[in-house]
Amino acid sequence: MNLAGKDKKHIIHPWSNLGSDAESMIIESGKGVHVFDSEGNKFLDSISGMWCVNLGYGNEEMAQAIADQCVKLAYYTPFGAMTSPPSIQLATELSALTPGDLNCFQFTNSGSTAVESAIRFVHYYFNCLGQPEKKHIIYRENAYHGSTYLAASLNGKRCDRSYFDYVTDIVHATSDPNPFKRPQGMSIEDFCDLRVNELRDKILEIGPDKVACFIAEPIMGSGGVIVPPPGYHKKTLDVCREYDVLYISDEVVTAFGRLGHYFASEEVFGIVPDIITVAKGISSGYQPLGAAIFSQKLVDRISGDSASENSYYTNGFTYSGHPVTCAAALKYLEIMKRDKLTDHVLEVGPYFMERLETLMELPAVGDVRGRCLMACVECVVSDNEDENIAFAQRVDEFCQEKGLIVRPYENLCILSPPLIIEKKHADQIVDILGDSIASTM
Ligand code: PLP
């Protein structure tokens, strides 16, 4: 049996069709912005693996830092009063970069566990404050927050809901702020207010005493790179503040450079949330690492009395603050700073978006949206959504035949190239994608 056959027999892939006979594409190696499959084909990777390999592939400095830490100390327990230096150093360095007083880190293994940990903290927090009824969570349609039980219950994408079970009693959806889908004739400003008022109405409907938190991605990623109208985040944060609802900014995709800044919440959207969740780019995808980052104020409010039965924080993982994953993140931060990676993104990102917007001339393109190195092209060839989805899937196949990997989601082609791309790579992505769309017509 060949490798693809063994894969089919033994491995359950995330978000895959268990009934499909299709063989997986086996990616064997990578260098820079390119990856190579098991048949030796070379692809320009316009999705950074999965929004994460910010530095591109085969970075030897990253490999060396990981190897050095493995030799020095591969692992030690973070439980109770034990720890190891890399997590302390990482939390200290990150504290200087996070918005406001978001200085307290719970390290996790992934984005899902970061979101799960954030929500569990919020529940614990309100229990400690004597408000145990404050448990409800508001998320947005088309959001993606992960694959653990509670995080998956906050996913708003249609295709993420299948025969699994979800938490239903304490989660509530509100509409996403996609300007492309706003009612005909409505201004962007009015559309923003519509969505903000919808959040307020949802809080009032559930009861402010029961709503614990609102969770939002600064720019929705896998739900279709939805860039909110100007002022949306600021206004939703104000609504949350009004009703003592905590604001969780899920920056699993947007933090660590993709939008040209370390964190998008404050630097791009001007807000200081109560909690930020991160993963993916934090280690440039070289090691599995995530974190829930809490405001010092929140932590202080519930700490301080070690005799209290509430002060025992029974939440965390064997691999929280794993020394090797933290060493990878520290090296990524060092490279980001030294190579002025955010400046590079602020230069190449707008060029990429500008080139991508030329695809609007193609009749099959309904919308091109995004910011810096987070973008999407929405294919609209018919009033029938299934036809649009089938079209985008054919575009994806054409792209692969021409040596480009994009990420299809329904009728969208999603793009999130490594942050090290140069303008020539941006040109190649746009040219191949444009040719593929044109030849799919
Ligand atoms: N949150 C956001 C915004 C994401 O995009 C993702 C994954 O794509 C997650 C959470 C879950 O992260 P992970 O797959 O590392 O668990």
From TrEMBL:
Q: Name the Gene3D superfamilies on file.
A: Aspartate Aminotransferase, domain 1, Type I PLP-dependent aspartate aminotransferase-like (Major domain)
Q: Which GO terms describe its molecular function?
A: pyridoxal phosphate binding; transaminase activity
InterPro entries assigned to the protein according to its UniProt record, in alphabetical order? Aminotrans_3, Aminotrans_3_PPA_site, PyrdxlP-dep_Trfase, PyrdxlP-dep_Trfase_major, PyrdxlP-dep_Trfase_small
Requisite cofactors: pyridoxal 5'-phosphate
GO CC, one annotated term: cytosol
| Swiss-Prot/TrEMBL keywords | Aminotransferase, Pyridoxal phosphate, Transferase
Q: By its UniProt entry, which Pfam families does this protein fall under?
A: Aminotran_3
Q: Which domain of life is it from?
A: Bacteria
PROSITE patterns cross-referenced by the UniProt entry: AA_TRANSFER_CLASS_3
> What protein family does this chain belong to?
Belongs to the class-III pyridoxal-phosphate-dependent aminotransferase family.
Q: Which PANTHER family match?
A: AMINOTRANSFERASE (PTHR43094), AMINOTRANSFERASE CLASS-III (PTHR43094:SF1)
The name this protein goes by in its record: Aminotransferase class-III
Q: Which organism is it from?
A: Desulfatibacillum aliphaticivorans
